[in-house]
Amino acid sequence: MGTAETNAKLWGARAREWADHQEQTARPLYEHVLKATHIGAGSLYLDVGCGSGMALQLAAALGAKVAGLDAAPDLLAIARERVPNGDIRQGELEELPFTDGTFDLVTGFNSFQYAARPVEALRQAARVTKKGGHVVIATWSPPDLTEAAKLIGAIKPLLPPPPPGAPGPFALSDEAALTSLAKEAGLTPVRTTDVDSPFTYPDLATALRGINSSGVSARAMAHSGEEAVSKAHEAVLAQYKRADGSISVPNRFRYLLAKVG
Fold it and tell me: Which stretches of the chain are assigned E, i.e. beta strand?
């Protein structure tokens, strides 16, 4: 069984709320990666697990020719709205429907750790990347370096027991695990970078709409109910409420830049 069948329903359940309220929390990460890899006019860029397409939209604005792949049709519909000239497809991370050696850059933002076969997913990413091009594996920083990890921890008791060997959101956060996976897939690690990317919202209601739109939250709500999940999230968010009612939870993402060939 591949990644798409497992994750499509979870991550597409609240696609519009994800696009409107939650995806923006990763924008600093997207911008950092695109700048570090010199994406611009004439670049060929693929984002796997592209979701609602913000990274593609940012790259297209820089002049890149973009392509994206995701499991969830509802998220892909939004990506196509944002990047009408992009090559946006539904499919599996482990079976990329693109020609060998096509792209200058392939990214996976919080996607490779959820693949049913992460090494094969990375091998596919390397296959469709030009020699001398780059693959970026982006994930969470370790839990002790990001306070947003408390939000995931808060709903852990509300989730069903995971299948044996199932990867978690922090499966690739350890630098050694990240570089080891890249090497196993035939990539050459270049450097690992942490990027501050806070979860910021104008008010509590917006914060809950955003956080409850994730696939992890969808799984917890299906098991324990939306009210229980919202209460667990609200207890964490209360710690980060500002005087004006806005909320900002410190968060940090980690990415590995790896070279092909």
Answer: 44-48, 65-70, 87-90, 103-109, 129-140, 188-196, 199-201, 247-249, 252-259
d(CA 260, CA 132) in angstroms, rounded, equals: 5
In three-state secondary structure terms, 259 is strand
Distance CA 99, CA 105 (A): 14
Token representation of residue 234:
């609200």
Residue 26 one-letter amino acid:
A
Report the chain (261 residues): mean pLDDT per 10 consecutive residues. 65 91 97 98 97 98 98 95 97 96 97 90 98 97 95 95 77 93 97 97 98 94 96 98 97 98 90
pTM metric for this prediction? 0.94
| Secondary element (H or E) of residue 115 | none
**150: exposed, middle or buried (C-beta count within 10 Å: 0-12, 13-18, 19+)?**
middle
Q: What's the Cα-to-Cα distance from 187 to each of 120, 123, 135, 137, rounded to whole Å? A: 12, 8, 8, 11
- Distance, CA of 253 to chain centre: 10
Q: Which distant-in-sequence residues (6+ apart) come within 8 Å of 209 by Cβ? A: 14, 17, 20, 21
CA distance 231 to 129: 44
